[in-house]
Amino acid sequence: MFQTFDDHTDPASGAQRAAELRNTLAQQGLHGLIIPHDDEYQNEYTPACFERLAWLTGFTGSAGVAVVLNDKAAVFVDGRYTLAVRDQVDLAVFEIVPIMDKSVGTWLKENTTSSAKIGFDPSLHTEASVKKLRSDAQGSDIEFVATERNYIDHIWRDRPAEPMASVVPHPLEFSGKQSELKREEIAQTLKEKGADTVILTNPASIAWLLNVRGGDVAHTPLPLSKAILSKDGQVDWFIDPQKVTDQLPQHLGNRVSLEHPESFASALSALGQEKRTALVDPTSTPYSVISSLEQSGATVVRAEDPCALPKATKNQVEIEGTRKAHIRDGAALTRFLHWLAEEGTSGTVDEVTAVRRLESFRADSGELQDISFETISGAGGNGAIVHYRVTNRTNKKLQPGTLFLVDSGGQYRDGTTDVTRTVAIGEPTQEHRDRFTRVLKGHVGLAAARFPEGTTGAELDVLARIALWKAGLNFDHGTGHGVGSYLGVHEGPQSISRRSFNVALKEGMIISNEPGYYKTDDYGIRIENLVVVTPPTPVDGGERPMLGFETVTLAPIDRSLIDVNMLTDEEITWLNDYHERVRSTLEPLLPNEVAAWLKQAAAPL
What we know:
By secondary structure, this protein is an alpha+beta fold. The protein has three domains: 145 residues, Creatinase/prolidase N-terminal domain (Creatine Amidinohydrolase, Chain A, domain 1, 3-Layer(aba) Sandwich), CATH 3.40.350; 144 residues, Creatinase/prolidase N-terminal domain (Creatine Amidinohydrolase, Chain A, domain 1); 287 residues, Creatinase/methionine aminopeptidase superfamily (Creatine Amidinohydrolase), CATH 3.90.230. Helix content is 33%, strand content 19%. The protein has 20 helices and 27 strands. The strands form eight sheets. Strands 4-3-2-1-5-6 form a six-stranded mixed sheet. Strands 12-11-10-8-13-14 form a six-stranded mixed sheet, with helices on both faces. The chain is globular.
């Protein structure tokens, strides 16, 4: 099993740990400390040794921040975690603040006295995040102090060791482009921007650039490291020698120099002493790195990570790989859905059992390297917790007359998958059907969209919501996130949400299509497929070619939850065509009894 069901944290520890932290801060002359979820690599999923937010507060979500003052404390979360956080955190110690309603800087402005000194670890905050803190607190006398050490680490006595997983080559049959060519293209970008080097602290960018994969981050094949790429194509890669396997030097070639991580700081200083110009991404590079460069005399050019967009726009080998991965994954998920149809109403199936069975079906392929994130297995009211993680304590049985939401994915060497299906356990109610059909209409509206080049995710987001809005309903998470190629299940810079107005969708990007609806303590609904942005093609009678989406996820959508009378003819046609593709593609891979079930599950409406 790649997934465990233990509680990783104990909310009862929050009071004692907050008190000990306050004592430490008082000794340093600080009035408070900001504790982000982020580590020095800005990972979404962090290794155990970097789970400082979870250790302090009990909150285990993949995004959030805490503030501890001498007389109060708060945990800030987004819409995905507003329900889950209350089950994990001691509410007598930590106030819960929806970050969409109030920022950390604004809260500090309202809750500190004049001339408060608030500490932050500069290796865990980006320059952009520090700039926002100061902007939101403008008009107050708060002094934000970059600390020389991490005070959570100071009191975390049994902190786990940093991971040291081996790094392996990611061969051309999966990457589709030689690392040397990638380095040459990024080096050319540096020249165009007038930079001598780029500082890379995002492990996914480095893994993509060097065509390597690792195992330092749970469910994401990343080696933790940093790199400096020069405009001549030379790379200094700062990685612990314990991670370097015998085949790695030959794979990298002589234009990549392996350096010890401890020499990274001196390398930054050397760039300043040599009066070099360094490109950094202020949204992903630690504040400490940029400060070190400027203090040593380097010229800093602030721009987007030059690896981000090329990494997001997959080549044909990567696209074909993700298609193959989704066929393999779809067969496993269909076997699971058949099992659920047979056993779901028996009263013996619970959330943990479902996770175990689904992972076993994926493992049967012989190709599964890991799951791409911890499976969200939500029965009844647990399904309304958007990023619910089942534990032995919260485990719930599936009951007739309820809904079951399962959001899961796999890591395969040729692709990363992420799919959500909502299933009726027994007979659904009319309300279930109404809400599900509205979510389905949004899903189909987005999947079938055609749009001109230059269109952003923010411009498409409404397509997924309009049927819900008409009924006075909505959902509080983004509609779509980028997905990597045997990398992170969440990948930028592309997304589909009301805030994704800066990045245009481009041919080759992989992105999720996942509208939903959640009724607190009752049920959750989400329908998620991954799509690939297709090349611009003509539209009959149109004046310009249009981009579109190819849906690559293959698994049946529960027909018992659909109110056909609410669908248009075009929506019915889309769903019937999709189900026919699911059936014809997966049927040859399935046992006879599963294929027979799929024929009915994917029958035309």
